[in-house]
Write a structure and sequence with these properties.
Helix content is 31%, strand content 27%. With 421 residues, it is of the alpha+beta class. 43% of the residues are buried. Bound molecules: adenosine-5'-diphosphate and calcium ion. Calcium ion binds next to loops.
Length: 421
């Protein structure tokens, strides 16, 4: 083939709905590594040169693996990397088929299915809430009678808290059950097949929440950042807003968080690459809510810089390609990001106060990620944010205050009655 490369390349698997293509491609460019993008729809890829893009089936992983293997025949690959739950599973299967370093597909699959995740953790010695699995055609009234309260109902494989609902009593349980069932019937979800026919019920774990961003190397965990989530997440829906690092937790709590994450990762059998873990902390100890075999979502990674200004994506690409990494130490400043929640359903007409929001001291950037005129859907049905606010400062308190102040400047005009075609 004429376009056979002398340099091996990295294949990035990125869904069309991901925010992260540009940041990963930037990182590849800065590292001067050859990268190709595999995605599930042709049109998003047209901007890239031929041979640097490939359409891959993300739904049917056997077919996806075959497509990646065919691509790799003409374009030798040295690594395959996914960015979200679905693509990390495919990446591990494709890497296995190609004889490249990989996490075991079963390990990655357990991070992409909340019931399997709970089942693995239940035997790990970690604190685990009671949990059970329902099918969408179960009798919700009976399940509601049998449940213990408060509990959380959730789909097995969605993200960004889509469809995650707390219930304090049987009435709320039944309402939540029907609401999730409708989400599972939406066109983008129904294609997920059998996993979209189940709902997981978990005991509600009270407590404050943190997120740990880490990198595994031969099973050893390097913590890249520990984020506090200072807004209470008590339900009924679990809207993520502010992430701030360094954590204000005591050193002893920080090491308990790290130990629990190490234990969860070991139970899952994950060995290599980025992880993003979420934990809740209360007087019983740390509870692992979720572990992803991927890095932090949305544009949140932009809050992190390492060494002399290296991005999280650069660290990850360097790691998977075995390039030297000078330092994994995060910069000295406190930093944070706010995922801007969608306050109501409708069509986004305008965003006011952007200039003022950007002028707040400590704010490094405000990015609106939804185009004007687009329909916006709040939780629990939606899975997007209006945008992201980034801030840096001398202390986590200062960063949190800057994010809140900046958010207060923003005025979103959403027309609830407007129809999209
Ligand atoms: P997703 O993959 O959509 O992020 P999660 O399982 O991580 O789904 O749930 C989203 C959020 O809902 C969590 O960050 C947490 O705040 C809350 N949550 C989920 N499960 C529980 C639980 N068992 N107890 C308390 N809060 C929970
Ligand atoms: Ca989560």
């Amino acid at each position: 083939m004429t376009d056979r490369d002398s340099q091996d390349r990295l294949l990035l698997l990125i869904p069309t709905t991901s925010y992260r293509v540009a940041d990963f491609l930037d990182a590849a460019h800065r590292l001067d590594v050859a990268v190709a993008v595999g995605s599930n729809q042709r049109h998003v890829l047209e901007a890239f040169a031929d041979g640097r893009t490939v359409t891959i089936d993300f739904q049917d992983s056997e077919k996806g693996v075959r497509e990646i293997c065919v691509y790799a025949r003409d374009h030798p690959l040295s690594a395959v990397l996914g960015v979200d739950e679905a693509t990390t599973v495919l990446a591990s299967k494709a890497s296995k088929a190609l004889g490249l370093a990989h996490n075991a597909p079963e390990s990655v699959e357990a991070t992409a299915n909340k019931f399997r995740f709970r089942t693995v953790l239940a035997n790990s010695g970690l604190l685990t809430p009671p949990f059970s699995l329902l099918t969408v055609d179960a009798d919700p009234e009976r399940a509601a009678r049998e449940a213990t309260y408060p509990c959380v109902l959730k789909p097995l494989m969605l993200s960004a808290s889509r469809g995650v609902i707390r219930a304090d009593d049987p009435d709320q349980f039944i309402t939540a059950f029907h609401r999730i069932t409708r989400i599972l019937e939406q066109p983008d979800v129904v294609t997920l097949g059998d996993t979209a026919k189940h709902i997981l019920i978990e005991g509600y774990v009270a407590g404050r929440e943190v997120a740990l961003e880490g990198l595994l190397d031969g099973g050893r965990l390097k913590v890249l950042a520990l984020f506090d989530k200072p807004d209470p997440l008590e339900g009924p829906f679990f809207e993520e807003t502010i992430y701030v690092t360094p954590s204000r937790l005591s050193k002893s709590w920080q090491s308990r968080v790290m130990d629990a994450t190490v234990q969860a990762v070991a139970a899952l059998g994950l060995k290599d690459g980025p992880i993003h873990a979420e934990l809740r902390l209360n007087d019983q100890g740390p509870w692992v809510i979720e572990v992803g075999a991927r890095s932090i979502g949305g544009l949140c990674a932009r809050a992190l810089r390492f060494g002399a200004g290296i991005s999280l994506e650069e660290l990850i690409l360097s790691h998977v390609l075995g390039l030297p990494i000078e330092t994994m130490a995060r910069e000295d400043k406190a930093t944070g990001v706010m995922m801007i929640p969608i306050p109501q359903a409708g069509v986004l007409e305008s965003v006011g106060g952007l200039e003022a929001a950007r002028r707040i001291s400590g704010v490094d950037g405000v990015t609106i990620t939804i185009p004007m005129g687009q329909e916006v859907v709040p939780l629990p049905e939606g899975n997007k944010y209006l945008g992201f606010i980034f801030a840096r400062g001398d202390s986590p308190e200062a960063v949190e205050a800057a994010l809140r102040k900046s958010h207060h400047c923003l005025r979103f005009r959403i027309d609830p009655g407007a129809e999209t075609e």
